Amino acid sequence: MSKHARPDRPIHDLLARRWSPYAFDDRPVSAEDALSLFEAARWAASSYNEQPWRFIAALRTDAAAFDKVLSCLVEANRQWAQHAGLLALGVIRTTFSRNDKPNRVALHDLGLAAANLTFEATARGLYVHQMAGIDPDAARRLFHVPEGHEVATAIAVGYRTPDSRLSGELRERETTPRARKALREFVFGDDWNEPAAFVPARVSGT
Length: 206
Hints:
Elements: H1 13-17, H2 31-42, E1 53-59, H3 63-70, H4 75-81, E2 86-93, H5 106-123, E3 127-131, H6 136-143, E4 149-158, H7 168-175
Antiparallel strand pairs: 1-2, 2-4, 3-4
Helix pairs in contact: 2-5
């Protein structure tokens, strides 16, 4: 099954091919691929080059470590994420290391790092599903995350399998075509909710 985006304007093929499946098979992700994913994350942009992201990661080939990360997901996410080849928790340092002042863009920068990781994965034939459904307190306790850091997200990486493994709402989500808001709904100009001058009033076919 393909869920390639159907963009209104030309975009890079990796952006069009990227999507977040629930149906992962049990094929392992290699250590070599995992290292390249986090190397891609390493080179993300960040405010003052702070690089406030931290990742707690485990390959499913390391069953004990994988299950420990898996236990930090909410039950609904554990049901499908258990089949991924790699799981990671995304953590931010909430203050700048240079002056200990609050870093209000730390979550933004974690997102940039996760995006780099995602597109590197897509280029390698892997799929990434990012999650907010985690138990941050459990993660803090199990992994001894220090004060001044916040466990924010989780990421599952792996190879996709046919959606017959899924049922109910997850199967519906897996098979529903991708859709996005039109540019005019979020690219504003002179005033709030007023599309920027370069954004057309509508795109043919949308």
